[in-house]
Amino acid sequence: MATRRFTNDLPPDPDATGVKPPASAAPSPPPAQPRAAAPKSVPNRGGAAHMPRTLTQVINEANERVIQGDLVDYVPMSTGFDPLDGFIGGGLRKTELILLGGAQGIGKTIATLQIARNIAMRPDQYAFYLSYEHTETHLMHRLLCMESVNPPEVDLSRGIKLRDLYQIIVAERAKGFMGRENNPAGSLQAILRDNPKTAPALQRMARYSDRMILVKASPAVTTLKAIKEMTARLCDATGGNVTVFVDYLQKIAVYPERPRDENDKVTIIVEGLKDIALSLDVPVWAIVAADREGLKSKRIHLFHLRGSSALDYESDIAIIMNNKYHILSKDHVAFNPYTAKQFRDWVVFTVEKNRAGRAMQDMEFQLHGQHFAFDPRGQKVQQQLIDDKVIES
């Protein structure tokens, strides 16, 4: 199933959202692996979410789905980050709202886009990524840089940086304009396909490019209603196999509601995102920014996220990111300021809320920021962190 570019100016009218089940092919992609067959159309699993049903009806409906081979209620979708999947019950589940918080520059967008890519790598799943911060083209450039190191292999010797990518494109186009090439109007795809540094990344990206749907959202017009309408249409087109990613939560337009303050606005947004997850039967992953007090804190926690207590109440899973170097306990017997510098590129992911499992679990992943990638092979934090209690005998 091919997809087309979505409009980012989305009026409330569902027929004018610009998001319809894709019917026509997008511009011809580079050679890719054979694509999986389009998923079979299935009834909207969340369509009767607000209708009263007896327990017998619920059992019968669940039984029918299992008979048909629909096991999404029982098999989570892996994020591709280990041991994060283990701590949150195997991965993302339908109807869940997952929040990811942290300071600016910690790698929230990098982690979210990489997880969206990991979801879209599955031949039966689609990632719907709404960015209020970056254009679709910029996200594509980030994905090319990430694919150049090929997570989870993470081969840095073959990695390209954003400036390298730009230089390759500009240099090849300059050759064409100077008459050094037979095709002065060479396409971007041709440049990337013919360059030995970018060709492998382009090939890897082509494996999921038809299942990664990107939208440059607008803080003025991309409302909760518009997000729900787009997601509903994608669910209809893909058999409900969609995971929604929002970057980031506080930028979602609130209209026609008139929130009293920031806390009221965030309450409306987070309740709306939870409603999307429940009524459309999809996982929703949203990035949340930290407030001023959180940015001043040595270690950011869930209560430091910008907004209200609704973030804690409505979310099923809340993950907070902190730079490991900044939160290493100076009281730890093994702390050494010189060796501690090696942890500057490591980010601690803390599961601070986990509705279905243990909370306050710390794990760490190495960040390769210049390539917009995490090494998804992480580990549980072994060192003492601040805010942890050291029990002395």
Give structural notes.
The chain is an alpha/beta fold. The chain has a domain at 52-160 and 197-321: 3-Layer(aba) Sandwich (Rossmann fold), CATH 3.40.50. Helices cover 31% and strands 15% of the residues. It contains twelve helices and ten strands. Strands 1, 2, 3, 4, 5, 6, 7, 8, 9 and 10 form a ten-stranded mixed β-sheet that branches. Helix 6 packs across helix 7. The longest helix is centred in the last third of the chain and has 19 residues, at 262-280. The protein is globular and about 65 Å long. The chain starts with 54 loop residues before the first helix and ends in a 13-residue tail after the last strand.
Could you outline the blueprint of secondary structure elements for this entry?
Blueprint: H1 55-67, H2 84-87, E1 97-102, H3 108-120, E2 126-131, H4 136-149, H5 162-177, H6 188-194, H7 199-206, E3 212-216, H8 224-238, E4 242-247, H9 262-280, E5 284-289, H10 292-296, H11 310-314, E6 317-323, H12 324-327, E7 346-354, E8 361-368, E9 373-374, E10 379-380
Parallel strand pairs: 1-5, 1-6, 2-3, 2-4, 4-5
Antiparallel strand pairs: 6-7, 7-8, 8-9, 8-10
Helix pairs in contact: 3-4, 4-7, 6-7, 8-9
